[in-house]
Amino acid sequence: MGHGELRGVVALDGPSGTGKSSAARRLAATLRARYLDTGAMYRAITLAVLRAGVEPTDTERVVEVARAAKLTQTSDPDASRTLLDGQDVGAEIRGPEVTLAVSPVSAVAEVRELLVEHQRAIIADALATAGGIVVEGRDIGTVVAPRAELKVYLTADAQARAQRRTKQDTASGRAATVDAVLADVQRRDAYDSSRRVSPLRPAEDAVELDTTPLDLPGVVAALLDLVEQRGLRVVAVGG
């Protein structure tokens, strides 16, 4: 892929429906940087747990499944793929069964330790080979990459987030209603912000960005401004 225009790590955190994933991917593509969707990794482990017939609340067996799973997360923003035991599960991990089970699975300390180690390895490789990476999730600025050069915490009104998620689900062929998605958004907010390990919260030095009034290009433009303000964008002469 070669070196792009971003130097360092951009950490994007925030709850579901803030436009985090779409913005992170678009930002990385714009800067020719790497991109890491950490949420997809937790979803893939959750899928492995469900396939094994293990209850998401059975901590001991969840850890066993997580350790045995062969998980690969690629970092090309134009072709990000999530592979579980060699199979592309990118579509399956967005289904309702995984969505309902991902919070308890991702709250298991041993699972988070395992995946954080994996995520840090991907980040290190990206910095060495591409120069920069945009990482999105719920604990990037606080746990995964606490020394990130730029940390942004995305927020949005719950109703707006539910409408966005419903639109995304419908576009992907998944049945969804705003009311049902709103309930799920609120459930995940409560679960993720109150869990004992790596709760959802902004890092102390994060810039908070309310995406409620913004469309995707607007969010990306705001993020690009922050990248440039921090001096993290390096454009080659003649580029």
TrEMBL record:
Decide whether keyword Metal-binding is in the record.
no
Catalytic activity from the UniProt record: dCMP + ATP = dCDP + ADP; CMP + ATP = CDP + ADP
Q: Where does ATP bind?
A: 14-22
The entry's keywords: ATP-binding, Cytoplasm, Kinase, Nucleotide-binding, Transferase
- Which residues are in the Cytidylate kinase domain? 10-228
Per its UniProt entry, what is the enzyme's top EC class, as one word?
transferase
InterPro entries found in the cross-reference section: Cytidylate_kin, Cytidylate_kinase_dom, P-loop_NTPase
Query: In terms of one coarse class, where is the protein primarily found?
Result: cytoplasm
Places the protein is found = Cytoplasm
User: GO: which molecular function terms?
Assistant: kinase activity
Under Enzyme Commission nomenclature, its number is 2.7.4.25
Q: Name one Pfam family in it.
A: Cytidylate_kin
Recorded family membership: Belongs to the cytidylate kinase family. Type 1 subfamily.
- Protein name (Swiss-Prot/TrEMBL): Cytidylate kinase
